[in-house]
Amino acid sequence: MAYMHISWLLLIQCLLLVTRIGAKVPAIIVFGDSSVDAGNNNQIPTIARSNFQPYGRDFAGGKPTGRFSNGRVPTDFISEAFGLKPFVPAYLDPTYNISDFATGVTFASAGTGYDTATSDVLSVIPLWKQVQYYKEYQSKLRLHLGGNKTKETIHEALHMTSLGTNDFLENYYSYPGRSNQYSIEQYQDFLIGIAGNFIKQLYGLGARKISLGGLPPMGCLPLERTTNVMGGNDCISSYNNVALEFNGKLKTLTTSLNKELTGIKLVFSNPYDIFMQMIRRPSSYGLEVTAVACCATGMFEMGYACNRNNPFTCTDASKYIFWDSFHPTEKANHIISDYVVKNVLAQFL
């Protein structure tokens, strides 16, 4: 009887293992902005770059890859959590090829947004162009894996998006074009329309597992706090409220598209709450500094203004939430990605 009991246990464990392997994600495919760019902007003529020190000083080999952090970005950690590579390479990086991209690729471009006018600000890769690259990638994958295997890979791959912050901070609130054309509510709806069409495009190209990324509390970015002199350099609550409203609309969009598109599994990955918890209770996460960034003075520098020669750059980025005035440290990225994996993406594991 004891022998039979052990056999049943082994059978159940084997069945669970088969179920887990069957549900496994074969690749992570990423669209978005600087939060998930791994170096695509290095290959285009733009000032929105980070392929120099001190960026990447805590990345493998201390290499500045074009990631806007001292180390890895969230999608790198998510890839590792899914048992894939410990980083997701940039599609335009010439040091990688289709065999590398078969298990993960990012088309993201720092400075871009849903709105093509946002990508025009810093001459970066617009979302429509990222979709073109994705189609090109699928063609290369077919040659590499064959038609059936490619279809299966795309069908089972986790497609991730991280967009929207630049549409508001770099575009709407910085230039008169869109703000003269739309109220803030109308602009949110305009972006939601683009987001919906984008998800439908991915679906039409075979994607079925999709994570739609939300906005962080963008009023708490060091750059915004620095300019909020009248508010005592605190978070700009109006910007945070816009992020909350927009996230609400993204969540509604997720619900409606899940009903509309047969067989899709669309989830909303919202970083807002975990980000806010880190800012309000940093010690709970082993963090100390929340209002300023590690790089340079920590108030307004990013990209070329965050350079290796600045004497003020902190020595230990793991105590900081922000690496530069706009982007989280590797440690903060790890905390955010862990939260998203456990609370949202675990259903794909």
Could you walk me through the main structural features you see in this protein, from its secondary elements to its overall organization?
By secondary structure, the protein is α/β, with parallel strands linked by helices. It has one domain: Rossmann fold, CATH 3.40.50. 45% of the residues lie in helices and 7% in strands. It is built from 13 helices and five strands. It has helices spanning 2-22, 74-81, 98-101, 116-121, 127-145, 147-156, 165-172, 176-181, 184-204, 222-227, 237-260, 272-280, 330-343, and strands at 28-32, 104-106, 158-162, 209-213, 265-269. A five-stranded parallel beta sheet has the order 2-1-3-4-5, sandwiched between helices. The longest helix is centred in the last third of the chain and has 24 residues, at 237-260. The two termini are 34 Å apart. Mean pLDDT is 93; it is low at 1-6 and 14-23.
User: Which consecutive residue ranges, at least 5 long each, have pLDDT under 50?
Assistant: 1-6, 14-23
CATH architecture: 3-Layer(aba) Sandwich
CATH topology: Rossmann fold
The class by helix and strand makeup works out as alpha/beta
What's the CATH first level? Alpha Beta
Topology, number of strands: 5
Mean pLDDT value: 93
GO molecular function: hydrolase activity, acting on ester bonds
Organism: Pyrus ussuriensis x Pyrus communis
Keywords: Signal
Pfam families: Lipase_GDSL
